[in-house]
Amino acid sequence: MVNTDAQAVVGIVSARRVRAVARVLAGPAVIAASVAGCASALGPAASPRREFSPFHQGPHNAIVRVVTERRLVALTFDDGPSARYTPAILRRLRAAGARATFFMVGQSALREPGIVRAAVRAGHEIGNHTFDHLRLPDLSSVGIARELCAGARALERVGAPAPRYARPPWGYFDDRVAVVAAAQGYPLIGWDVVLDKALHGGEVVAGVGALVARVRPGSIILAHDGRGTRDRTVAALPTLLARLRERGFELVTVSELMRSTRRRACGRGVSRRPDALIVVCATALLVAGCGERAPQRAGDDERPVAPRRALSGTPGERSYAPWPSFGHDPSHSGASPVVGPQRGRIRWRRRLEGPVVPGPVVGRGGVVYAASNGGVLHALDLRSGRDRWTFDGGGSYGSDLSTVPAILPGGTILWPGPRSTLYAVDPGGGLLWRERLPGQPLSPAVAPDGAIVVGDASGTVTQLRLDARGRPRRVWRVDAGDMSYAGPAARGDTVYTTVDDALVAIRAGRVLWRVRAGAISEVSPAVTPDGTIVFGANDGVQYGVSPGGELRWRHRTGALTYSSPAATRDGLVYFGDHHGFMNVLDARDGRLVARPLALGRTPTRRSVGVWTAPVIDARHNVYFGTRPGHITASPPAGGGCLTSTPARRSTPTPRSRATGRC
Q1: Does 60 participate in catalysis according to the annotation?
Q2: What is the tens place of the pLDDT at every residue in 50-81?
Q3: Which CATH number fits domain 4-46+59-289: 3.20.20.370, 1.10.240.10, 3.40.50.1010, 2.40.160.50?
Q4: Annotated catalytic, 78?
Q5: Would you put residue 160 in left (φ > 0), alpha (ψ -120 to 50) or beta?
């Protein structure tokens, strides 16, 4: 069904004319010819074109505010539903008697159908935020249509009404995205006020006050309930709702806001092209893109690639810890000089006091340091799984960021704990010192000269050094400019971190340069032996950057990745992706060396995916974690598993068990 509100978007073909042309296009031959013509009329996915981003250049096409004399405001949430944050947001909205619009990701909606239905029952509106949360301008025109169609289909499948509005991920779109969205009847919704920016790096009350001062009648407020740490959003919501009510604003859905007037405050329309051609192209893309096939990314051919050169080098070098971690190796090699296990046997299983999102690290003497979101650090015996000791951080943290502790050469454990605090704990479990940070601490890195570098979710990076008494001394602290989701890397006296959609280089407390990616980055960078800094972004691209900040290469996989890259000693870069591949690149030029199908050819591999940084042993076997909670090992050529062990089960396992299935 085509939404007649599409007629309100300036410069885009009206829904009535789309329906009229749809009756004319009767056969697949006409559709194929029309799609082929659109390639030249609307431009190929990779060609240069005018692109709009509300973060930098203004919203242009999107409806960012409604012109109305009534004091109405639309509060919108992107990137959900999230089991951790969306229910808490729904409770706070219900307590305030407010309605909101949730732009939901199709994949997330399929994982959390109950939350979607709860939002609908509470009277909130559900909008289309695509199926895979990809950067739409990087897709083909048909790929854009498939993302929107699959997103809407997923929402309807779990009980939501057909969405009336769409919002492109990160707000990135161009002429083609606007035309394809109009063909499906979607006005594109932007925003004019951002809650995340107001809360960045400051107190909640002050941030909310600054935001409310910028709200006008008809404003659309952007907030997030998924894909990141949203604790500050949840904490700020009651204050925000109360302040808006004090100023006489009523919280309504986007549809209610749109109905309040016929005049919309929009940016410029799409570039002018022959009107009839736009109608034909938009309709052809609507028909071709809304088939039953799953969304596909540009450049994703779903084919494994056998190793193109022998993997015969030495991936890692010896360290004071038996297996690598981000803390032991600040360059993030992810490699070990020993051979890892060839079979996965469950020796023991421990249930902790909260979700185990933080990653474990192995220390000296066979001790596993593991924490939970309940805010407790456990020192577990490697053989039995029993506690040697526990350290209570005095609070929980509802973060979905997978942080890991670091271990100093003397055995001190640096734990990124709750309450925005980095804790130093001695090998016996006693507190040595604590350092308060501006935001939730991420995985710390320890340089060979003993310098400790830690980033936090606010985007701040801090360098510490220990004095003669073992107490921390702050050397410098830098605000890198935006939110961060992963720990920094270091090489020599330079620190590299990812914030929002950028890689930032810092030296001596000063930002040297920043290189922007095509989308937000949620992984840590790695530094290769020749100095290239490698990081991935949510546009399905890995970037190789020189120490001076020049882009050396880009490698497109076409698949989303939450797998931080590992840059091994023998000049290779390893990272997994959401389609179940383990990608191996030459660090010098970004060329593909191998792309084994790490999870095997199973029907569910695309819904499983590789969700952790890889670890590479002396024989180039790769170990990684999957989305459903399996620990998997793959041989260098891929195509199967050394072992695949479920990391969680609903019932205890009476004895060791191993499986070779992926």
Answers
A1: no
A2: 333 333 333 445 788 888 889 999 999 999 99
A3: 3.20.20.370
A4: yes
A5: beta
